[in-house]
Amino acid sequence: MTERRRVGAPAEAIAAGLDPEAVVERRAHRLQPAFQATGMSAFVALVVTAINTGVDAQLIARWWHAWRLALPAAIVAAYLFRPLAWWVARLLARWSRPRAR
């Protein structure tokens, strides 16, 4: 009888005896900035396009053009600024933690 593989669990991880969930978790952490940049760039491109050119029947076409240009830059920026963002987030978390009385 063959071992049933979990959806999303890499075969290499199972074969190597690694925890498949840990491998999936690491992959998700690596992909998260790209997906966040995709959503944020789509939203920002839509808002800026609507403000700059107005809302009419051609808005979606203009937005699509703007987003196609902005998306690669947003993904690159997300990965470039990820270490800085993590450092600032940790700094703020330490600074804003509740003080003992």
Could you describe the 3D structure shown?
- With 101 residues, the chain is an all-alpha fold.
- It contains 3 helices and no strands.
Amount of helix = over 70%
Major β-sheet annotation = none
Identify the overall geometry.
Answer: flat
**Strand percentage:** under 5%
- Rg of Cα set: 21 Å
Q: State the distance separating the first and last CA atoms.
A: 61 Å
Give the helix tally.
3
Mean pLDDT across residues: 87
Structure described in brief:
With 101 residues, this protein is mostly helical. It is 76% helix and 0% strand.
Throw out a few tags for this protein.
101 residues, mainly alpha, 3 helices
Q: How are the secondary structure elements laid out?
A:
Layout (H helix, E strand, L loop, with lengths): L10 H6 L3 H34 L5 H37 L6
Helix pairs in contact: 2-3
